[in-house]
Amino acid sequence: MSLTEARPHSTAVGMGAQLVTRGLTKRFRGGQVAVDDLDLEVPAGAVYGFLGPNGSGKTTTIRMLLGLVAPTAGRSWLLGQPMPGAAASVLPRVGSLVEGPAFHPYLSGRDNLRRADAADRTAEASSSARRVDTALERVGLANAAGKRYRVYSLGMRQRLGLAAAMLRPRDLLVLDEPTNGLDPQGTREVRSLVRELAAEGTTVFVSTHLLAEVEQICSHVGVMSVGRLVAQGPLAEVTGATASRVRVHSRQPGDAAAVLHRLGLTGVAVEGDRAVADLGAAVPEQLVAALVRADVAVEQFVVDSPTLEDLFVALTGEGFDVER
Question: In the beta sheet, which residues pair with residue 25?
Fold first, then answer.
């Protein structure tokens, strides 16, 4: 797909998707446009990584999706139902963690979850204790469940927020920076948890600034820049939209460049002791053979495949965090 082609191709809104937006826009007083004409489409069962630098509109988008903020224009659907009209029936099937969890500081982790569970009118009261204990165990807080929330570290608070989002089986999880404040071990545990949830059939929409997180757990990706969605689709397809480059290191870089140009490669240039070009549909082994036949001494032949970081920089012109 084209790097600038972000609109879905399906003719029916929501076909096979759990989260869909059409023309979603948020304009604040004063004229600032936080989200501009957004068309998202998150397939059922996907782990969708929602990427973008700070201020690109990710959190505002999530708040609109959950009915926390009214859009200026456009429409959205969760689980095939229009929002916010169907919020009462849809949101009990959606777990969310947005801009960090908010709990009562004087209550324990367990009691906070009990209150959250009691607020769900669709949940059976008789099984509340089991749901709370299961959620605490799943996020690794069973041993700290009796401690007051106010003494929890940032990472523990984030874990409790995840537990609240998973008190019941959900069809869709919407997570805003779920590994914020976690140490490396906690980050790995959350990644593993997301994989487990996806394997169980839950669709996961995760906003993050960590490229390593996306590359390890996401099947699909969307990239935001200045309020607009500049690319989306399967991760391999989106990263593959950036052309691979070849580097031929040689004592005869000019001759190597001439051979590459003669073979039809584009973007041919000489950079110091190497010739570079866009690989396109060419076969690397055939290129090396042609260089050798032309008496070009090839010291090193490298194919540089695009990474998610390359894509992000190409689309937004900004750097990005690769690791925590």
Answer: 73
pLDDT in the model for residue 2: 37
Query: How far apart, in whole angstroms, are the C-alpha atoms of residue 200 and residue 194?
Result: 10
| pLDDT at 316 (0 to 100) | 66
Task: Tell me the H-state helices in 98-183.
Answer: 109-118, 128-138, 154-165
Across-strand partners of 224?
229
Low-confidence stretches of the chain (pLDDT < 50) are 1-12, 320-324
What gap in Å lies between CA 219 and CA 298, rounded to an integer? 38
pTM of the model: 0.76
Q: What is the pLDDT of residue 75?
A: 95
128-138 and 154-165 helices, crossing angle to 10°: 130
Cβ–Cβ < 8 Å for 215, 58: no
Residues in the chain: 324
pLDDT for residue 26: 95
What pLDDT score does 319 carry?
53
| pLDDT of amino acid 273 | 93
Sign of CA dihedral 295, 300, 305, 309: negative
- 184, with CB counted inside 10 A (0-12, 13-18, 19+), is exposed
Type of residue found at 187 = T
**Is residue 36 helix, strand or coil?**
strand
DSSP-derived 3-state class of residue 146: coil
Structural element, H or E, at residue 47 = strand 47-51
* Strand 41-43 versus strand 17-27 pairing type: antiparallel
